[in-house]
Structure formats: structure tokens, C-alpha cells
């Protein structure tokens, strides 16, 4: 067996039903003689379903148990298609869900985000238990690792920030000894723990990031994320036609595209890999033989136009209530308030008396921010906007993207155009990206 560690991440789509779990095992069979460190997400849309449990519990709608029952049922059904009737895995699944029952039997915790993490993390825990049991069942000896024993975060629930030094130490102490043993290791994406051993999550879609954290700490030779697409495409195939696969991509290009909404890779994934020059493969679990996309430090200079669309954007226009200029001494205050709330800033522009900032509008952070500055500033918020980022743009691509939209802010640099847009209210059709995207 080789000493080289490779990290594989399988997301929700690759584990959405029993057939897909079998497919994951068959992919792993090809690597039976290698040291594979596996990171898995919750199965299918489990995280969304568990979010409804959190919501129901917090609002005391009386529906939390019913909603949980549905999640449990789908996991038992999936397991029933993979295991004999009296297999231990059924007790393990039950034990995982009991953790949620304990939380929802109690009054809602005053910190919503805390309860969220305690409940939603079970999706990854149960998924990793099922896949672990199945791999052992099909003679792929695999050890199970609790990611919370390695990944230490701060105590900002739902958006835990990794404490790298301690995480590295814990990886050395806990994960590295496991690599001495034959076979694979499996762990959960998306979750971590605070110093007080409370479970945290790393932000939605964070499992790719987990795989990168382990790749970094274990000095992996490469990392692969297995997706339902052939690799990284020039744009999201759910929104655009005429997209093509990119064979190679530099870390820099990948960071730019994912930060601004190319949903195929979590934005925090690339940096830890880049810092240790660990290449990343984005591969298809439907066609595992195909080459996918190879992301490394090598620079390509003839990229086609690439488009990323980030929805749920809010544009805040901030101006002073007195006669001072925004830039004079208000910037540091505004930036501090933005950072304290962990608002993701995607674009900003300032004039003498106003400051426009476009941020992700996914929970109540924008309102909290606006509220915190309202005494000193006038704030106008425009919501339900899209941020469109185009790398390596051509005039034709820009023109076609602007069709049917009102552009509220636009910013251009040599390689990138960003625009905050509002849709002209017409019946929406799937946009047809011009062939220049090829
Ligand atoms: P996972 O199963 O790992 O959670 P995701 O569903 O989060 O996978 O990510 C894969 C999806 O990302 C694809 O199905 C595709 O619709 C979407 N996507 C968005 N932008 C791109 C892009 N530029 N290239 C490829 N896929 C993209
Ligand atoms: N299960 C989590 C989510 O859906 C994490 C992930 O899939 O990456 O957000
Ligand atoms: Mg995902």
C-alpha cells in the first residue's frame, strides 16, 4: 500500500439514494490499494430537510418531530436497500437521530444558530455512518473518524472559522495514527467543534472545504471532489445553455469564480490547497473514468468567457446624515460592523457622500447591519438582486447577459466585469448564452 494520501469528497448528490451509494463504493473499489481519506456530506437534500426541523422547533409550530420523522424514514429506507434486516447500522442510525430528538424535546435555545448546528450536523454524522458500514460490508475496510475531533473552530455557530494551528495539531494526534492502519478512512464534511466541544458548522456547502482542510493537514498528494457534472463548466448548466467543460484551471481562476458564486466548489476550498500546491480534480461520479477538471498552479492564458451568478444579493446605499463625507472617518466604522456580522461583501463603490455595497442576503444579517448604523447613516436597501461576474469577457457575452435586466452597478477591470442586476419583470426563460462562451 502506498503512503501517499489522496482525499476524496462525495457530496449530497452522489449519495442521494442506495443506487448512488453503491456507485460511490464501486468508484472506491478502483482505489482499493491506495490510501484514500474520504469526506462525505449529508445524503441528498438532508441538510435542507433538517433546516425545516430547526425552523419548526424554533417557532414552536409543533411540526418538528413530524418533519424529523420524514428524514429518519428516508435514511432507514435507503439503509434497508443496502443492508440485511438486522444489521447494526440501524441502531447506529437511530442513535444519531436521538441526538436531534433530545434537542427538540427541550424549549428552543436562545441562540438559533447554536441549535441549528446541533441539529443539522446530524445529517453528515448519519451519512458517514451509513457509508462507513456499507464500505466495510463490501470488503473495503474503512475506519470512521469524527471530524469534530480534528477540526476546531471559533464559536460563531453556522459559520465557524477554522483554528488552523490547533486543527493541525489534532490532525497529527488523531488522524495521522489512523493512516498507519490498512484501508480507507471516512469522516464528515461541513462540521467542526468549539474548544468546549459544541458542534459547529462551516457554512452551507462546506464539505468541499473540509476535504481541503484535511488535504492540507495530512499533506495529501491530491484531492478529488466527485460531482454530478463533468467538471468545472464555463457557467452553471442549470442557468445557461452552451456551457463547456474546462480541462484545466489555475487556483487563482478557481478562487475568482467560486468566490463570486460558481456553485460547483465551495469558495474556501482552494486556498488551503494552493498554499501547499495540492492539485484538485473535479470529477464526475457518473463517468468516473473521464478526466474532469484539473486545478493547479499552472497558468493558462487563453480562458474562454466564464460566468458566475450569485443570487440573493442586497445592494445597500449608505450616506451620511450630517454634512461629512463617507470616506472621511466613517469607513473604518462601517467595515468593522460588516466584519463583525460576517457579511460577505461582493462589490463596493464609493463616492464622496455615499457608499454602495453589495452583499449576500441570506439571513437577517443585512437588517441587523442596517439597524446598527441607522443613527449615523441613511441606508437604502435594494433586495432580490443578482451579482453576475464575467471573467475573460467579450462585448457579445456582456450584451447577452444584460438583456432583460437593469444594471444597478457595474465594475470593470482588465479580466473581470461585475454587475449587480435586477430582472425586468417578464416571464423568465432559460438564458441562451452566446456561442462565444465556448
Ligand atoms: P455536491 O453534490 O457536492 O453538493 P453541488 O450540487 O453543490 O454538489 O455542486 C454541483 C452543482 O454545481 C452542479 O450540479 C451544477 O449545477 C452547479 N454548478 C454551478 N456552477 C457550475 C460551474 N461553473 N460548473 C459546474 N457546475 C456548476
Ligand atoms: N450538507 C451541507 C449542505 O448541504 C454541506 C455540504 O453539502 O457541503 O450545505
Ligand atoms: Mg453541495
Give short descriptive properties of this protein:
2 domains; 438 residues; alpha/beta; VC0802-like; binds adenosine-5'-diphosphate; binds aspartic acid; binds magnesium ion; Carbamate kinase
The ordered string of helix (H) and strand (E) elements is EHEHHHHHEHEEEHEEHHEEEHHEEHEHEE
The helix fraction, in percent, is 25-40%
Mean pLDDT: 94
The number of distinct β-strands equals 16
In this entry the ligands are: adenosine-5'-diphosphate, aspartic acid, magnesium ion
Spatial shape: globular
CATH names the topology of the largest domain as Carbamate kinase
Query: What is the annotated CATH architecture of the largest domain?
Result: 3-Layer(aba) Sandwich
CATH C-level name of the largest domain: Alpha Beta
CATH homologous superfamily (4th level) name of the largest domain = Acetylglutamate kinase-like
The major β-sheet equals:
8 strands, mixed
Radius of gyration: 23 Å
User: Structural class of the helix and strand makeup?
Assistant: alpha/beta
Which consecutive residue ranges, at least 5 long each, have pLDDT under 50? Answer: none
Number of helices: 14
Strand content: 15-25%
Q: End-to-end distance, in Å?
A: 42 Å
Strand order of the largest sheet: 3-4-2-1-7-9-10-8
Number of domains: 2
Please give a structural write-up:
There is one protein chain. This protein is α/β, with parallel strands linked by helices. It has 14 helices and 16 strands. The protein folds into two domains: 223 residues, 3-Layer(aba) Sandwich (Carbamate kinase), CATH 3.40.1160; 132 residues, VC0802-like (2-Layer Sandwich). The strands form three sheets. It has an eight-stranded mixed β-sheet, sandwiched between helices. Strands 12-13-11-14-16-15 form a six-stranded antiparallel β-sheet. Strand 12 and strand 13 form a beta hairpin. Helix 3 packs antiparallel against helix 4. The mean pLDDT is 94. The structure holds adenosine-5'-diphosphate (ADP), aspartic acid and magnesium ion. The site of aspartic acid has 12 residues, from loops.
Amino acid at each position: 500500500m502506498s503512503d501517499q494520501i489522496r482525499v476524496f469528497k462525495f457530496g449530497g448528490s452522489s449519495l442521494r439514494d442506495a443506487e448512488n451509494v453503491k456507485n460511490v463504493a464501486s468508484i472506491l473499489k478502483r482505489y482499493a490499494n491506495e490510501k484514500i481519506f474520504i469526506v462525505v456530506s449529508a445524503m441528498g437534500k438532508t441538510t435542507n430537510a433538517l433546516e425545516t426541523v430547526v425552523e419548526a422547533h424554533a417557532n414552536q409550530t409543533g411540526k418538528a418531530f413530524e418533519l424529523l420523522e420524514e428524514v429518519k424514514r428516508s435514511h432507514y429506507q435507503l439503509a434497508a436497500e443496502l443492508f440485511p434486516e438486522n444489521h447494526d447500522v440501524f441502531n447506529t442510525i437511530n442513535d444519531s437521530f436521538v441526538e436531534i430528538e433530545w434537542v427538540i424535546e427541550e424549549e428552543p435555545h436562545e441562540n438559533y444558530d447554536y441549535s441549528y448546528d446541533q441539529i443539522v450536523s446530524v445529517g453528515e454524522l448519519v451519512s458517514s455512518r451509513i457509508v462507513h458500514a456499507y464500505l466495510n460490508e463490501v470488503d473495503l475496510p474503512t475506519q470512521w473518524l469524527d471530524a469534530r475531533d480534528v477540526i476546531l473552530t471559533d464559536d460563531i455557530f453556522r459559520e465557524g472559522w477554522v483554528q488552523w494551528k490547533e486543527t493541525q495539531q489534532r490532525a497529527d494526534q488523531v488522524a495521522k495514527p489512523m493512516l498507519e492502519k490498512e484501508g480507507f478512512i471516512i469522516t464528515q464534511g461541513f462540521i467542526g467543534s468549539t474548544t468546549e466541544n459544541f458542534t459547529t458548522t462551516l457554512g452551507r456547502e462546506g464539505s468541499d472545504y473540509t476535504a481541503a482542510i484535511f488535504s492540507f493537514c495530512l499533506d495529501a498528494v491530491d484531492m478529488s471532489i466527485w460531482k454530478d457534472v463533468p467538471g468545472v463548466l464555463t457557467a452553471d448548466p442549470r442557468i445557461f445553455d452552451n456551457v463547456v467543460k474546462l480541462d484545466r484551471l489555475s487556483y487563482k481562476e478557481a478562487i475568482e469564480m467560486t468566490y463570486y458564486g460558481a456553485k460547483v466548489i465551495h469558495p474556501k476550498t482552494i486556498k488551503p490547497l494552493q498554499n501547499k500546491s495540492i492539485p484538485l480534480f473535479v470529477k464526475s461520479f457518473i463517468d468516473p473514468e473521464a478526466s474532469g477538471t484539473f486545478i493547479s498552479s499552472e497558468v493558462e492564458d487563453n480562458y474562454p468567457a466564464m460566468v458566475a451568478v450569485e443570487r440573493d444579493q442586497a445592494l445597500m446605499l449608505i450616506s451620511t446624515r450630517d454634512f461629512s463625507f463617507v470616506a472621511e472617518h466613517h469607513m473604518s466604522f462601517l467595515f468593522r460592523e460588516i466584519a463583525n456580522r460576517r457579511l460577505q461583501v461582493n462589490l463596493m463603490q464609493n463616492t464622496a457622500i455615499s457608499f454602495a455595497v453589495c452583499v449576500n442576503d441570506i439571513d437577517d444579517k443585512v437588517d441587523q447591519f442596517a439597524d446598527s448604523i441607522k443613527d449615523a447613516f441613511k441606508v437604502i436597501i435594494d433586495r432580490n438582486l443578482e451579482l453576475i461576474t464575467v471573467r475573460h469577457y467579450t462585448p457579445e457575452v456582456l450584451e447577452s447577459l444584460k438583456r432583460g435586466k437593469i444594471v444597478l452597478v457595474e465594475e470593470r477591470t482588465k479580466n473581470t466585469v461585475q454587475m449587480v442586476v435586477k430582472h425586468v419583470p417578464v416571464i423568465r426563460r432559460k438564458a441562451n448564452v452566446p456561442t462565444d462562451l465556448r
